[in-house]
UniProtKB/TrEMBL annotation:
Taxonomic lineage: Bacteria, Bacillati, Actinomycetota, Actinomycetes, Kitasatosporales
Molecular functions per Gene Ontology: alcohol dehydrogenase (NADP+) activity; zinc ion binding
Coiled coil: none
Keywords, in A-Z order: Metal-binding, Oxidoreductase, Zinc
Gene3D superfamilies named among the record's database cross-references: Medium-chain alcohol dehydrogenases, catalytic domain, NAD(P)-binding Rossmann-like Domain
Reactions catalysed, as given in the entry: a primary alcohol + NADP(+) = an aldehyde + NADPH + H(+)
Entry's EC annotation: 1.1.1.2
Family: Belongs to the zinc-containing alcohol dehydrogenase family.
Designated name of the protein: alcohol dehydrogenase (NADP(+))
Cofactor: Zn(2+)
InterPro entries tied to this protein: ADH-like_C, ADH-like_N, ADH_Zn_CS, CAD-like, ER, GroES-like_sf, NAD(P)-bd_dom_sf
Keyword Oxidoreductase listed: yes
């Protein structure tokens, strides 16, 4: 066991505070990672505040981890000391069910293990990236290509794969019109990736406050959803809409923006249920779907894609002492576009 410094929420809705945690000794197939940067995801806030249900405390959040390998177990074949690596939302799964065998470990039929706020196969709680080090099985570690800076790569481990996966699955590319709802931590990555895939990209945001940013990030068009004319002008326009917001939406209104056979895919997860009139779905043979991160192989594919296209996250690097302030700012949408903790400050 190794004792490392970390920032943890001692209880639901409590401010995070500096503490120490125990990391397990490196096993046969484990990789010890010196964490360099950890992104702050809105999911961290939902879970630390028990917005998504009962949680495990003390909680060390963080599933956007970028660092350097400092030790490997004797059976490790994929990584060596000094490698630049990342860890996303998963640290284990059964590896035997049909979903795991298909590279969709996030949907493990026997229960995947989250990077934090979960119980590992050893019966111990998992602790995330707001810490100095982490020990992870090599099969749940990904390589960060040299073309990506570690701080800009960290948010890709959640925000990047969360948007890349549905964009790929629903065929975003040349000749397709894609809309991204919300220009935040997830949304700005959705815009960058959809643009790199060759789609015509539109941002749908509450206001035009971030329009200049959206266009610089790769959007072709930018509309304010607070203006009723937006829904009239864009009716029947899009092949695919990806919703990245964590607040309830008028789903019927957004379904009205889809072409026949279009899809509205939700990657944001509001704490409250949403209402739906099924006629808005039936008319036009439309699809209302959800998407949750991606498997390990697809996460590596996403990192390689981002490196090839020069895509990193737009970040604001902070000291660990600023985490609680950062949480408040995320809730207020006061970040452009992802906070990243410099873990040397923990």
């Amino acid at each position: 066991m190794t004792t490392v410094a970390a920032y943890a929420a001692p209880a639901a809705k409590a401010p995070l505070e500096r503490t120490t945690i125990e990391r397990r000794a490196v096993r046969e197939h484990d990789v010890l990672i010196d964490i360099k940067f950890a992104g702050i995801c809105h999911s961290d806030i939902h879970q630390a505040q028990e917005g998504w249900g009962e949680a495990i405390f003390p909680m060390v959040p963080g599933h956007e981890i970028a660092g350097v390998v400092s030790e490997v177990g004797p059976g490790v074949t994929k990584y060596k000391v000094g490698d630049r690596v990342g860890v996303g939302c998963l640290v284990d799964s059964c590896r035997k069910c049909e979903n795991c065998e298909a590279g969709r470990e996030q949907f493990c039929l026997n229960g995947s293990v989250g990077t934090y706020n979960a119980i590992g196969k050893d019966g111990e709680p998992t602790y995330g990236g707001y810490s100095e080090k982490v020990v992870v099985d090599e099969n749940f570690v990904v390589r960060i290509p040299e073309g990506l800076a570690l701080d800009e790569a960290a948010p890709l481990l959640c925000a990047g794969i969360t948007t890349y996966s549905p964009l790929k699955r629903w065929g975003a590319g040349p000749g397709k019109k894609v809309a991204v709802i919300g220009l935040g931590g997830l949304g700005h990555m959705g815009v960058k990736i959809a643009h790199a895939l060759g789609a015509e990209v539109t941002v749908l945001s509450q206001s035009l406050r971030k329009k200049d940013d959206g266009l610089k990030l790769g959007a072709d068009h930018y509309y304010a959803t607070s203006d009723p004319k937006t829904f009239e002008e864009l009716a029947g326009s899009f092949d695919l809409i990806v919703s990245t917001v964590s607040a309830p939406l008028d789903i019927g209104a957004y379904l009205g923006l889809l072409k026949t056979d279009g899809a509205l895919v939700n990657v944001g997860a509001p704490e409250e249920p949403v209402a739906l009139n099924l006629f808005s779905l039936i008319g036009g043979n439309k699809t209302l779907a959800g998407s949750m991160i991606g498997g390990i192989a697809e996460t590596q594919e996403m990192l390689d894609f981002c490196a090839a296209h020069g895509i990193g996250s737009e970040i604001e690097v902070i000291a660990a002492s600023e985490i609680n302030e950062a949480y408040e700012r995320v809730v207020k949408s006061d970040v452009r576009y992802r906070f990243v903790i410099d873990t040397a400050t923990i």
